């Protein structure tokens, strides 16, 4: 019985042979990072589709799409709808934690939960939506760190924390989503992780061969 790691190595070497691309240890690591969250069965399915439909070596992002997942831009639209419904249901007073870590990270990068609630439903919502869709898609591609995935504090929790109170009712509400959030990778907080992500991006660009 082959292990998942052995099956993954076989898949990558098959792709490398078919597309005339050497699979070095660095390339293998980059694809492991880029495909994190997919099962080995999904990776094998994506590779089979790539062998039938791709002219060039697929990038990790392309393999994720071939595995059947939503494109980041399409998932961003569903994520926006989830975030807006959470604003309507809980408002800026309550703390929230989204099942989809990329939503949490996106809202945090846009100023936090309270600022996000303030901009929803007003004149700024059009621009907020554009910023959200662009930022969310980026997180889907590069992953979310543990810090960025922490719960978003509402006014009740913020005020009570300042006063030294920690009430059970201030715990964040878990916001579910109707799509597969597992496709959003979790990344580490170390410098080595950031360097590895840079390698993934560089390899993705290097794999892109201009059509003649």
Stretches where pLDDT is under 50 for at least 5 consecutive residues are 190-212
Fraction of helical residues: 55-70%
User: What's the helix-strand series?
Assistant: HHHHHEHHHHEH
Cα-to-Cα separation, first versus last residue: 43 Å
Extended strand count: 2
Could you say which structural class the secondary elements and strand pairing correspond to?
A: mainly alpha
Principal-axis shape: elongated
Number of helices: 10
Please state the average pLDDT score.
83
Q: Biggest sheet: strands, sense, closure?
A: 2 strands, parallel
Radius of gyration using CA atoms only = 20 Å
Q: Reading side by side through the largest sheet, how are the strands ordered?
A: 1-2
What amount of the residues lies in strands? under 5%
Structure, described:
- With 212 residues, the protein is mainly alpha-helical.
- 58% of the residues lie in helices and 3% in strands.
- It is built from ten helices and two strands.
- The protein has helices at residues 4-18, 25-34, 40-53, 60-66, 72-90, 101-109, 113-119, 125-142, 155-162, 191-207; strands at residues 96-98, 173-175.
- It has a two-stranded parallel sheet.
- α1 packs parallel to α3, α3 crosses α4 and α6 (101-109) crosses α8 (125-142).
- The longest helix is centred in the middle third of the chain and has 19 residues, at 72-90.
- The chain is elongated and about 60 Å long.
- It starts with a helix and ends in a 5-residue tail after the last helix.
- Mean pLDDT is 83; it is low at 190-212.
